[in-house]
Amino acid sequence: MRRSAKGESRMSSSEQTSSPARAASPSRSTASASLAALAKAEPPAAHDVNLSNLRMPTPAEEAPRRSKPMGIRELSKQESQHKILVAAREIFAEHGYQEATLRQIATKAGLTVGALFNHVKDKRDLIYLIFNEEVDKIVETAFASPRAYQSLSAKILSVTEHYIRMFGSEPVLSRTLLTEIVALSPGLHLNRYLITRARLVDGIERIVAEAQVTGEIGSTEASEIIARHIFFVFSASLRLWLASSARPEWRDGQRDFERHLNLLIRGLSEKGDSRSVEAKRGLRLASRNDAVM
Known about the structure:
By secondary structure, this protein is mainly alpha-helical.
């Protein structure tokens, strides 16, 4: 590097030769084509998502997805947390939630009880921790499922299918979670669970607001209130389904919620159950189409 009389830096010819060339920027047409391809890409269907268990990814699996490498302390914390989750699942399965103790879980994880309390406040906090990672993933996948051409009912059902599959994959832990969440006991991981649950309600509200704009929903009630009402119905339906048998079948849970949802959407003004009302509406629509043709 040489400096001119004016104090400006100049590169020698050898330095210019060794300097890496600047990569050419992609053309506008290439970028547009890429965006168009992404827009046409179909989101994964519910049955394509592996929900066979609610497994926390190991630190080694999680590390490649991080934009910045974890420090030694953070990596150690993640490894300890993973051990705790694995141990908690085993102890809960062996002794049951009520009989299991934090000391048993700490011993299984190779930690002291004091070290365990750095990660969770109590057993209820452990349940939140177990579900948080998977529920976070479910929200993203579930709300990529509805299609623009679907009815309000079909859009909501395409979302709830993901949740019903997830909760049905581990019914014992799911029942425990839905029982313990009622207490809303403060913990290290409760807030994250509540935030994720709020994202579900927010997503339903967006679907409801779209239906109000298109006229599919005639009610002028706030979309937030309608979404919350749908969530209440779903939550109650989910609990009843999980309590119906030791190994509940997810399709039964989805069908049960569908009947409650159709009743909610169509109201109580028409005679018959939700299935017969749906059939009547289909016949009316067909008659109108015949008249037009």
